[in-house]
Every structure is written in structure tokens, then in C-alpha cells.
UniProtKB/TrEMBL annotation:
Residues 88-203 form the Amidohydrolase-related domain. Gene3D superfamilies: Metal-dependent hydrolases. GO terms for molecular function: hydrolase activity. It comes from Streptosporangium carneum. Signal peptide: none annotated. This is Amidohydrolase-related domain-containing protein. Pfam families: Amidohydro_2 (PF04909).
Length: 209
């Protein structure tokens, strides 16, 4: 099993504004108990040696995890590092421009299957050769939402990749019951594609399947 989307659980690597936003999305705007929620988030983001992440990978037989560094600078007012860099952020329209300019580069937008299922599926069907999408933040889905995502996976079975987004969205840092629910709804072949083979193709090419 491959997890295409994890983050370092270290508050030093994450914008304070983002941490405050995570806390703000929780109980009483993150102010319950005099800021206890934000303190709990920061405490959760203290896995500096990745022991909790490694424990999670062992529990779920995850053999590879792709560590992503989140860059929220422009959204927090820091502006682009170069004035010539584009500022287009429309999704999924802006992604198609990138794909037109770089047709041989495999691309996997994070959260696509969860945040814009319909638009992402349309993109995947139009670009079967080099476009993928992960299911990170699936922990937020209702049972019906998860069912819709799994139905979407069937429309592009070779292009959807598992991602947990650990440690975000689930303060346990563990996909847990939702992951087991996905497994129960998928055939062995569908599980192989979603949880490993599609990621291997994305990362290493078709010969790696």
C-alpha cells in the first residue's frame, strides 16, 4: 500500500495561520477553553521523529509514504516568489493549462476526488494518459460522500490514488474506520489499483505496475 499524500507532523513546518485555521474549523472557532483547541492541534503536530506516522504505516501495511511540504504563503498574503509567476487559481480550468504546457508530466492534484468530484472525474476522463488524483481528506466524507467517491473511482480506475493527508483532518493521524469501509466496498482488483498500483505508475512509470 502506498500513501501518496502525508505531511510532517511538526508545527515548525506549518504556517501559524494554517494551524489557527485548522483550530478555527473546530469547536467554538478554536477558542473553547481559552484556546485549548489550538493548543491541542499544536500538540498533535509534534511528531518530529515521525514515530506516530511510522506506527500508522505499520498498522495499515503502508510500504511507501510521499511526504509533502505545504506552501500556503501566497494564500496568506506573502505573494509569489517571482513577479512573473502566474496567479491563476481556478480549478479545474487552470490545471488544464498546465497539462497543455507539459503533456508528458504526470500530474496528481491533491484532494481532487473529495473537493470537486464531478470536475475531477471529467478531467480524468479527458486526460487518461498523464492525469491522476488522490482521495486525501476522505476522512471528512459522510457515508454517502464516500460512496460517491468510490463510484467516481470506478469511472477512472487507473487514475485515482490513495492519500491519507496525515496528520491533518484526523487528529488521530489514522485513516481508521473509513479506510476499512473503503476496503469492504472494493473488489481485490479495485483495492490493488487504488491503494498501490496507480501510485506506482504515477511515481515510477507503467513498467512499475
Amino acid at each position: 500500500m502506498i500513501d501518496i499524500h502525508v505531511h510532517p507532523a511538526d508545527a515548525r513546518c506549518i504556517s501559524p495561520g494554517f494551524i489557527a485555521g485548522v483550530a478555527g474549523s473546530m469547536f467554538d472557532g478554536g477558542q473553547s477553553g481559552g484556546g485549548n483547541v489550538e493548543r491541542a492541534v499544536r500538540l498533535h503536530l509534534s511528531d518530529r521523529n515521525a514515530r506516530r506516522l511510522l506506527s500508522q504505516t505499520d498498522t495499515h501495511a503502508i510500504v511507501e509514504s510521499i511526504l509533502l511540504i505545504a506552501d500556503f504563503g501566497p494564500a496568506l498574503g506573502e505573494g509569489a516568489s517571482l513577479p512573473t509567476l502566474g496567479r491563476e487559481q481556478r480549478y479545474p480550468q487552470s490545471l488544464e493549462e498546465v497539462m497543455r504546457r507539459f503533456p508528458d508530466v504526470p500530474i496528481a492534484p491533491a484532494h481532487g476526488m473529495v473537493w470537486d468530484l464531478e470536475g475531477t472525474i471529467e478531467l480524468l476522463e479527458r486526460h487518461p494518459r498523464n492525469l491522476y488524483s488522490d482521495i486525501s481528506s476522505f476522512q471528512l466524507l459522510s457515508d454517502h460522500g464516500l460512496e460517491m467517491v468510490l463510484e467516481g473511482c470506478a469511472k477512472a480506475p487507473d487514475q485515482v490514488i490513495f492519500g491519507s493527508d496525515a496528520p491533518l483532518y484526523d487528529l488521530s493521524g489514522n485513516p481508521g474506520a473509513k479506510l476499512e469501509e473503503m476496503r469492504s466496498r472494493l473488489t481485490p482488483g479495485e483495492q490493488a489499483g487504488l491503494f498501490e498500483l496507480n501510485a506506482r505508475t504515477f511515481l515510477y512509470g507503467a513498467s512499475a505496475r
